[in-house]
Amino acid sequence: MQSYRQRFPLPPAGAAGFDYLIVGAGFAGSVMAERLASQAGQRVLVVDRRPHAGGNAWDHYNADGLLVHPYGPHIFHTNSAEVFAYLSQFTRWRPYQHRVLASVDGQLLPMPINLDTINRLYGLQLSSEEVEAFFQQRAEAVPAVRTSEDVVVSRIGRELYNKFFRGYTRKQWDLDPSELDASVTARVPVRCNRDGRYFTDTYQAMPLHGYAALFDRLLAHPNIRLMLNTDYRDIVHCVPWRHMIYTGPIDTFFDQCFGALPYRSLRFEHQTLPLPPGREHLQPCATLNYPNDYAYTRVTEFKHLTGQLHPATAVVYEYPQAQGDPYYPVPRPENTALYRRYEAEAAQLKDVTFIGRLATYKYYNMDQVVAQALSQFKQLQRPGTP
Ligand code: FAD
Ligand code: UDP
């Protein structure tokens, strides 16, 4: 096995150094830092090139005093009792169940598609059993469900696919759903009941005082040092460390030696808007999706998520784009194949561990990243592991 030091010459680790250098202070890096410091007594340096911890989940009060998510709306949901119990050590929660309406044919309709969506779209009064038959009549036979188009047309047919999925997906990814893995649109289920929640996970809640406060507590251990506004490449050769946890894009770590891995980006347009007297919100629910109109995909009004009372309201428009911060891995076979080449390189490095959404090129939600970090921590604790 190779070591990072063989690839890049480093000064020897000295007494004043750190046991762990963690690149990235998002959920992956911060959970790992907390575990290593509090459970294994390790001295940890966390480095992030941004001016704050929290990664893409970071939130703050904007100039108008409204709590917003600068990198897009982040709603916490999980089926993992372990992840929820773990995070509950660092935050109290505000129960919150996310709701989304999609603007289709001049109406705002429940998304995921459910019984109400169909009845309102077509002016019907179907029951749950009848809507299942409705979907089955329209479903197209697909020999093997491989793509994001296959998933939807094989379940509900092409007309609903065209109204709710095709345009949104083309905007979001600049790819046709037929060019994306099934896993992408499979994130959004289809329901025959009237459940209008976006998620059905057992635990659904927002950190009571926001994500930034959660991260402050995660990183508060005296064994953890946090260095912000710093690219790890600027310090990796001068700060002694024993093992690195890397949570940035994996292709960048290897100087894109096999070529750039595609990541999809977004431009966020934030606005503070006045409210009519007596109103707390402008939108009927947190998020409105626009599958077929406009250059943006969705608009989210933060007060639904945060429960904040304020005379004004804050919204964010999401405009997908190719350039910019890497936000989404792009799940499709050729990208997975390219990732596998980087993964094989990464496996050679015995003193670097790769975790998180960017470093493992996985379309992970926050809870999945926390679960991955907790499990990786346990692996690092095994005897014989560096
Ligand atoms: P990140 O949060 O990306 O953190 C990586 C960190 O590494 C960053 O802070 C970056 O600055 C730092 N870094 C990278 N390179 C370097 C370097 N060279 N030197 C120093 N630092 C570096 N998940 C949900 O569960 N619910 C949601 O509602 C939800 N909504 C989302 C909405 C959007 C628009 C996006 C993009 C994602 C959403 N997610 C959501 C997913 C969620 O953001 C991720 O699962 C989670 O934040 C990933 O954590 P991470 O630590 O792996 O990565
Ligand atoms: N999607 C869609 N129409 C919608 C909502 C989602 O076509 O109204 C598709 C789209 O391809 C999107 C994917 O389903 O990228 C996953 O949606 P999700 O809401 O989980 O996306 P995220 O919150 O991760 O951006």
Q: What is the overall silhouette?
A: globular
Please count the beta strands (DSSP E, at least 2 residues each): 17
CATH architecture of the domain at 4-53 and 219-261 and 330-380: 3-Layer(aba) Sandwich
User: What is the mean predicted local confidence, pLDDT?
Assistant: 96
**CATH superfamily (homologous) name of the domain at 4-53 and 219-261 and 330-380:** NAD(P)-binding Rossmann-like Domain
Topology of this structure?
Blueprint lengths: L3 H4 L10 E6 L3 H14 L3 E4 L12 E2 L5 E2 L8 E2 L2 H7 L5 E3 L4 E5 L2 E5 L3 H8 L5 H11 L9 H9 L1 H16 L8 H4 L17 E5 L3 H8 L5 E4 L4 H4 L5 E6 L3 H4 L9 E12 L12 E3 L8 E4 H5 L5 E10 L6 E2 L3 H16 L3 E3 L11 H15 L6
Parallel strand pairs: 1-2, 1-11, 2-10, 7-13, 11-17
Antiparallel strand pairs: 3-4, 5-9, 6-9, 7-8, 12-15, 12-16, 13-14, 14-15
Helix pairs in contact: 2-14, 5-6, 6-7
The protein binds flavin-adenine dinucleotide and uridine-5'-diphosphate (UDP).
InterPro entries: UDP-GALP_mutase, UDP-GalPyranose_mutase_C
EC number: 5.4.99.9
Cofactor: FAD
Provide a descriptive summary of the structure in words.
With 386 residues, this protein is α/β, with parallel strands linked by helices. Among the domains are: 4-53 and 219-261 and 330-380, 3-Layer(aba) Sandwich (Rossmann fold); 100-185, no CATH class. Helix content is 32%, strand content 20%. The chain is built from 14 helices and 17 strands. It has helices at 4-7, 27-40, 81-87, 115-122, 128-138, 148-156, 158-173, 182-185, 211-218, 232-235, 250-253, 302-306, 333-348, 366-380, and strands at 18-23, 44-47, 60-61, 67-68, 77-78, 93-95, 100-104, 107-111, 203-207, 224-227, 241-246, 263-274, 287-289, 298-301, 312-321, 328-329, 352-354. The protein has a seven-stranded mixed β-sheet with strand order 8-7-13-14-15-12-16. A five-stranded parallel β-sheet has the order 10-2-1-11-17, with helices on one face. A hairpin with an 8-residue loop joins strand 13 and strand 14. Helix 2 packs parallel to helix 14 (366-380), helix 5 packs across helix 6 and helix 6 packs antiparallel against helix 7 (158-173). The longest helix is centred in the middle third of the chain and has 16 residues, at 158-173. The relative contact order is 0.21. The site of flavin-adenine dinucleotide has 32 residues, from helix 2 and helix 14. Residues 23-29, 47-50, 55-57, 72-75, 231-232, 247-248, 266, 327, 356-358, 364-367, 369 line the site of flavin-adenine dinucleotide. Its cofactor is FAD. It comes from Roseateles flavus. Residues 163-363 form the UDP-galactopyranose mutase C-terminal domain. This is UDP-galactopyranose mutase. InterPro entries: UDP-GALP_mutase, UDP-GalPyranose_mutase_C.
